[in-house]
Amino acid sequence: MSGIVAAWRGRMMTGNDGLQSRDGGWADSSNGCDGHAGQWPVDQQPTGQQSVDQQSVNQPKAQETAGQSRMIRPIVTIGLLDNDEFSLAFLERSIGELMPEARVIWKTTSGRDAVARCLDTDQSPNVLLTDMSMDELSGLVVARTIRIQTARVAILAVTSFSLAVYAGKAAEAGAQGIVPKSVESPIIRAIRTVAAGGTWGEGFDTAAAAHARLGGRRVPRQFLLSDREAEAMNLCSRGLGTEQIAGEMQVSVSTAKTYLTRAIHKLGVTSRGQAVALWTGAAEDER
C-alpha cells in the first residue's frame, strides 16, 4: 500500500503525465524520487516550490560565484620582452598560474618591437617586463626610450644577474622596479605593485615621476638606425665579421659594410667595438 501512496503523491506533485518541470525542461518523475515517499531531492524540486530556507542557502552561493567571477576578470595587461624564448614561456606561464587578474597580451624578443607596441595606444600594456641584457637593444635603452615618451606603461626590469648590477641603471632609465628572473613569487608581487602605481625596490620612481624627469630628452641614438642598419648591428654584436653579416643578410659584402658604417656614424662613435658596446648597453650614450 505504501508504494501506491507514494506513486499517488508523486503524480499529484508532477501532474497526470508523470513529468516534472526542472531547469526550463521536463524530466520523468520516476527517476527523480530520492527514496522517500512523495519527496524530491532539494535540488530537483519543481520550479517555484523551493523552500525559503533553501533559497537562503542558494543565494550566498550565487553571490560567492559572482564575486569569484569579478576576482578573475583580467584587469592588468602585460607585455613581455626577452631575447630568450624559454624565459618568455616561463614568465607567461608563471603569470597565468599565479596572477589570475592579469593577461599577457603580447611577448617579443625584439626591443624595437616592444618599444613600438608600448607607444601604440592600441597595444600598450599596463606593465612591461623587460630583460636587461639582450643581444639587440638592452633593456636599459628600451626602458629609457619608452619613459622619455610616455608614463602610461609601468616598467619592471628582470635579470638573471645580481640585482645590484642593474638596479641603479634601471632606476635611472625610468623603470619602476627590478626582480630576479627565475623566482616566481617576487615577480608576481612586483607586477601587482607597479601596476597599482607603486615602485619595487630602493631608488625607483613612479612612472609619472620618471617621465617628468626624463620627458623631453633625446631618444637614444639606437633608434636613429634603420631596420637594416639595426639588423647589421645585431649581427655584429654577436661577433660576426663583415662577410658573415653579408651572408646572413643576403646582401653583398660592400652593402653590409655600408650598413655598418652608417650605424657607427649614427651612434656617434668611431669604431665597431664602441658601436657594439653602445648597442648592447655595455656603454652608455651620454650625448
Automatic annotation (TrEMBL):
One of its GO terms (molecular function) is DNA binding. It comes from the Bacteria. Residues 42-68 have a biased composition (Polar residues). Residues 77-196 form the Response regulatory domain. The modification 4-aspartylphosphate is found at residue 131. Keywords: DNA-binding, Phosphoprotein. Signal peptide: none annotated. One of its GO terms (biological process) is regulation of DNA-templated transcription. The keyword DNA-binding applies. Residues 218-287 form the HTH luxR-type domain. InterPro entries: CheY-like_superfamily, Sig_transdc_resp-reg_C-effctor, Sig_transdc_resp-reg_receiver, Tscrpt_reg_LuxR_C, WalR-like. The keyword Membrane does not apply. Residues 14-68 are annotated as: Disordered. This is Response regulator transcription factor.
